[in-house]
Design goal:
Blueprint: E1 5-9, H1 15-25, H2 33-41, E2 45-52, E3 55-64, E4 68-76, H3 85-99, E5 104-110, H4 114-122, E6 126-135, E7 138-146
Parallel strand pairs: 4-5
Antiparallel strand pairs: 1-2, 2-3, 3-4, 5-7, 6-7
Bound molecules: coenzyme A.
Residues 25, 74-76, 81-87, 109, 113-116, 118-119, 122 line the site of coenzyme A.
Length: 148
């Protein structure tokens, strides 16, 4: 299945499917349609889609600053999880950040989100500190990876 997936930069045509997956995945701190449109149109953002044929299976959004890259949003369709989709997207973001000579890639993850924590640790991200009550009542760990 993973062999059939294709990673592409999102276009405005993808916004409705991105929003649909966002709404199915999260129930708070949701990105709006305008957030996705702005990210797709903004050169500082990299919005990657992972598709099989034309079906959106997952996405990852990163903000590429001068020195650092922040992974801001990521979701994989529930029935396609644990098949290596997020692995491919994380690798693609790290590659891009390294090419752009970013010093590091960082992100916030809810302290109770074990699948995401395992994903980032697998890719070498190290926990740097905790942001208290970042997601409502839930704390967030800030993870960072130094680009080589
Ligand atoms: C977190 C998420 C993006 C992972 O996507 P995925 O495509 O299922 O992940 P992959 O199949 O590529 O797995 C890569 C690694 O992540 C970790 N992982 C993924 N799902 C896991 C689970 N349910 N339990 C433990 N570890 C898990 C493992 O380390 C895995 O590597 P391995 O298969 O070699 O053990 C997905 O669960 C998701 O969309 N969750 C809801 C949205 C979300 O939490 N986003 C992250 C916000 S920071």
């Amino acid at each position: 299945m993973i062999d059939k997936t294709v990673i592409k930069k999102a276009t405005l045509k993808d916004v409705d499917s991105l929003l649909g997956l966002e709404n199915k995945t999260f129930n708070f701190m949701l990105w709006s349609k305008l957030d996705f449109i702005n990210a797709v149109n903004n050169k500082e953002y990299l919005v990657l889609t992972l598709k099989i044929k034309n079906e959106l299976i997952g996405f990852m959004v990163a903000r590429l600053g001068k020195d650092e890259c922040e992974i801001e949003n990521v979701a994989i369709k529930e029935n396609h999880r644990q098949k290596g989709c997020a692995d491919r997207l994380v690798r693609a973001i790290i590659e891009r950040a390294t090419k752009l000579k970013c010093k590091n890639v960082f992100l916030e993850v809810a302290t109770n989100n074990l699948p995401a924590i395992k994903l980032y640790e697998k890719h070498g991200f190290k926990k740097s500190y905790t942001r208290k009550k970042y997601y409502g009542d839930i704390d967030a760990f800030v993870y960072a990876l130094e680009c080589i």
